[in-house]
Amino acid sequence: MSTADMVGFLAALLTTASFAPQAWLTFRSRDVSGISLAMYSAFTVGVALWLAYGVLTGAWPIVLANAVTLGLALAILVMKLAYGRSD
What we know:
Order of helices and strands: HHHH
Structural class: mainly alpha
Helix content: over 70%
Strand content: under 5%
Number of helices: 4
Shape: elongated
């Protein structure tokens, strides 16, 4: 594995892990008042496009990071839609 790949995987790990606390907190509290529906909608589409880009180019750090991030972002977006739409 190249140094660039190691840096990519580390960056992916750190940025992806940053979504886990928000998803967990939202799941436990069901408080979505501070979450922007527009922002999470746009973000989720962007992450899906990054995932597609990673697959198309064979950039596995991008694929791995965005697959996990997409799952977490979708979970938060679904909770926003399920628990309230107060924007």
